[in-house]
Amino acid sequence: MKNKLRIPLLAIAFILALVVTSSGTSFVLATTERHSAGAAIATDTNSGHLRIYTGADTNGPNGAVTGTLLVDWTLNATNTDTGGVITLGTVSNVNASATGTAGYFRILKSDGSTAIADGDVGTSATSLVLNTTSIVSGGPCSLSGTITVPAGT
Fold it and tell me: What is the pLDDT of residues 33-43, one digit of tens each?
């Protein structure tokens, strides 16, 4: 049985939760490890990307991308970590590159190809909560928030 821990990104129009799984019955990070993970994620996301695609993520972050790229934000180079809470630096608004229904997202390092995490998107109860999943080419898209590394349960 796999337990899931959620790492939420609280945003004005978006809430992102990265999912960590373990094969045991409980998964708890020590405080120092939570802080180390936060620092690593903050560093890895500096000048990285958050992209939204159509369709379902069938491959996870280690597999090839599927679907059409709808939105590509370049994350700021000033993401910071304080005790396992990563605050995203100011992210510039972008215009959607295609029209379609958002299905999943991927976070990448600054090289634009090394994946950090994937997750589902929707208007509620998903890893990335959007105000709408109907993306229109040329439409403005904004992003802000934090990523919280869980302490565990």
Answer: 888 888 888 88
Q: Checking DSSP bridges between strand 146-148 and strand 100-108, what pairing results, if any?
A: unpaired
Nearest to 86 by CA among 124, 128, 45, 127: 45
Contact between 146 and 9 (Cβ < 8 Å): yes
Which residues have a Cβ under 8 Å from the Cβ of 118 and sit 6 or more positions away? 57, 59, 60, 61, 104, 105, 106, 107
Query: In the numeric block, which tokens belong to residue 94?
Result: 């972008």
- pTM metric for this prediction: 0.73
Return left, alpha or beta for 32; rule: phi > 0 is left, psi -120 to 50 is alpha, else beta. Answer: alpha
Find where tokens 């597999």 sit: 63
**CB contact at 8 A, 56 and 127:** no
The pLDDT tens digits of the residues spanning 67-111 come to 999 999 998 888 888 888 888 788 888 999 999 999 998 989 999
What is the C-alpha to C-alpha distance for residues 146 and 79, in angstroms, rounded to an integer? 9
